[in-house]
Specification:
The chain has a domain of about 210 residues: 3-Layer(aba) Sandwich (Rossmann fold), CATH 3.40.50.300. The longest helix has 23 residues. About 10% of the residues have low confidence. With about 325 residues, it is an alpha/beta fold. It is built from twelve helices and eight strands.
Length: about 325
Amino acid sequence: MPPDSEQPAPATTGPLFHFFSGKGGVGKTTLAAATAVHLARSGLRVLITSTDPAHSLSDVFDQDIGHRGARIEENLHALEVDSSKRWNEAMVAPGDQQEAQRKRGRVERALSDAMKMLGDAPGVDEFISLELLLETMSSDAYDTVVFDTAPTGHTLRLLLLPEMLDGWIGRMLSVRTQISRVGNVIKRLMPGQSDGSAPDLGANLSDARDRIVRARDLITDTERTLFALVTIPEAMSVLETSRTMEQLGDHGIPVGVVIGNQVQPDSDTCEHCQLRRSIHEREVQELERVCAEVPLRLVESKPYVIRGPDALAKLGKELWKES
């Protein structure tokens, strides 16, 4: 559901989630930031996070943010997810384990190094973004979390990751008996190992699957999640919007709103502006056809740079004004 300053998120349901996606360069970061400021100034506690490797939240807020995050103003915090740094931090052994880590064998150290290298592997951005989603699902620190996602292809991988992981974990659980048998054989060969010294793989997998299922259910729950697809009234962007809506629909992920950004304002004196306006009007008609029952909101191009909380607040008020 769209942001509504008159109806804050119920405290018992956890934070509401807003995903902004679209082709690169259509203005999704600016619109996501404008939405975050609008919600924060309405009294909600808001976190906006960028999962796009090419971060621009710092630019649009005119403030350094980084992967540690920053307070923008009252009720509003921002975070630029750096998957490599977050992954490598997770690989560092805490406190007393560091000495044991140094004493490990060559093979173990090589495996540890390989795990750290995975932080730069394709797909890690989506995996870390999903981890952040899982963290905020059960948090009461924020009323609303706004995700400024990577361009469309990356976002589709993020949104479909719970479905993929659920299937993978399901297959792992299906061979749980065989895995348990192998574990029992190892225990018999190593009598000094107690039953409580090894983790319960089946229980860990079941717990992971439960969390993944909750994430999948959340993404498809229109009461808690709004997926905003940002586009511009140009033929290529409208075609991608149409394809993306079909792909999301095939996987049961509803688009909550389509935002047509950077619409050319009308002009009585500029011939070029009039021609651009006619092109945009035609593409807006195509967007209306593509959107069907999905709400379409239009934002005209501005003759100034939108940067900083005050400018974003003004844009957010325009974006989410009552139709």
